[in-house]
Amino acid sequence: xxxxxxxxxxxxxxxxxxxxxxxxAKKKELxxxxxxxxxxxxxxxxNPEDQVNMDADELxxxxxxxxxxKEMASMPVRTGIEVDFLPGxxxxxxxxLARYPFxxxxxxxxxxDGWDFTHPGRFRQFSGRDLKLVYEQxxxxxxxxxxxxxxxxxxxxxxxxxFGFFPREDWSWLVDRTxxxxxxxxxxxxxxxxxxxxxxxxxxxxxxxxxxxxxxxxPVTLGSDAHRPGxxxxxxxxxxxxxxxxxxTEVAVFNRRERTMLPLKTL
Length: 267
Ligand code: ZN
Ligand code: FE
Ligand code: FE
Ligand code: ZN
Known about the structure:
Elements: E1 2-6, H1 18-27, E2 32-35, H2 59-72, E3 77-84, H3 90-97, E4 104-108, E5 111-112, E6 115-116, H4 131-148, E7 153-154, H5 172-183, E8 188-192, H6 207-215, E9 220-223, H7 236-246, E10 250-255, E11 258-263
Parallel strand pairs: 1-2, 2-3, 3-4, 4-7, 7-8, 8-9
Antiparallel strand pairs: 5-6, 10-11
The protein binds zinc ion (2 copies) and fe (iii) ion (2 copies).
Residues 82, 225 line the site of one zinc ion (ZN).
């Protein structure tokens, strides 16, 4: 198994040291892991109410620590990062990302017009809204994220469903349109198992998305989105069984922002 989405306590809403996350990966005999902690959004010029990203001062220490962990590890460890996609800030994001030796960059959407809709303290705001419009707005951002070409992976593709709010209307056309636009942008989608631990109780993204990804040849990779050491590798066997059932035969891995495909048989 590979796990490309691991946080650490640096982001202020996860617990555990990198050593503890590595120990869990070793215990679960993972083939390859990647840390992808939350990039400091203050560097992108925003200052959210809830601090859920690492501090700007922490970034060099994070990078140095990943290097240290690589030396201790018996499996390949990749230097990833999870970066908020903020429309209008593509240029500043590109300039910053170019400065660091990442193996991959995961682009995620946690904000819509400043609303951190993935935050457990803020989901009540879903109630008063037109969910069809919320979904449309979210997936327009996904298309912009992909078109920005800033990222190697799109994180938790349908995280807008996290708290179990779905439009009453049919929105399958959004699934199709989104995956079709991803296909043109050389980006891969992660099967993120944190959805099974969230109120929605469904992996990100849904089977409908995964089927469309396969149809349009959008590659997939795997991540647990661990925020505690025990969550490393969580749900990955089930995730592999699911993508195999859908028809995928390989998953993406990264080195210095070069993608290669690993056959599922070798996991
Ligand atoms: Zn997080
Ligand atoms: Fe995220
Ligand atoms: Fe994450
Ligand atoms: Zn996350």
